[in-house]
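Morning - zinc ion inputs below, output right after.
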Amino acid sequence: MTTGMIWTERAMWHDSGNQFGPHSPWLEPAPHPESADSKRRIRHLLDASGLSDQLAWIRPAPASEEALLRVHSPEYLERIRATAERGGGNIGVKAATHIGANGFELAVLAAGGAISAVDAVISGQVDNAYVLMRPPGHHAERSEGKGFCVFNNAAVAARHAQAVHGLQRVALVDWDAHHGNGAQQIFWDDPSVLAISIHQERAFPPTIGAVDENGAGAGLGYTVNIPLPPGSGEGAYMAVMEDVVAPALRMFEPELIIVPCGFDAGHFDPNARMLLTSESFRRMTVFVMALAAELCQGRLVFVHEGGYHLQSVPFLALATFEALSGHRTEVNDPFLPTMQGLPMQQLQPHQAAVVEAAAAMLRAHPPRAKR
Ligand SMILES: [Zn+2]
């Protein structure tokens, strides 16, 4: 297996600002959790472990305006461009989503990185790919940046796969701990993109992502939400994979699977309350790889989203890269023994009820392949 790694140091120079949290004169400024460090340290462990040598490193090309406009409105692009030209600032309406003077250029490069990954996978240059770029994308809607996200990188990549490579059906399996609201809004009435989001119930955005939000019109059934309760562990996530993700993908028959991959469902993350370990991410990655092999010649692209705990995120990512590339390093995750022993790692009844509700929605409105 060859795994493509889309990376450039320039993406680490995205300026996410220095203020995150509710507006209050009493909140002392602190480093933003969406930092270069939380991504660079992934690269550091890949390098230190030797896994870097097994990856095919790919330099991202900027997204074209045409590619961005398949997802975002012209007015929104102009707003981001103008904010950067003013020297940067907050681009979101509510949440603190900040860009610097280089913000437009780097957001265009992050979206372009996702496109580069799709090109490399569909052309057969690599078997699968991981896009480790900033700013992240899965909260970005058509005309609004949110939750540290500027352009919806995964959505831009899905539309590129359709428009340029002629794919008819692309599936998104978003396992960031927060809701994939951007894809839900962008693809709400579109049966050509299956948007699955596994997230912590009402974490962010707090008003969206319920199990009965299922798409509309021709897209009814093609939005799938699994809002797991806080405290969910590997048992709950694997139940979702087996009882919702696998049947949904088999009904939909995607030609490409994109995973908006956050590591903030990891056990130490400051911005979510889930319990996943490095082994959980390895299992989930192996699971979705098997589905990609069964359904779409293994075509699989991971696009980095959240994941903020500086010490543990690199180990969650390393396990994911080991699974994707098929190369096991000698590294042992030092956080694993403590967390694997937690009793709440097993599927709990109140979590099983959510999984069953999502599976029932799937039976009521099956996202069947439309040709
Ligand atoms: Zn997140």
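Note: The radius of gyration is 19 Å.

O.
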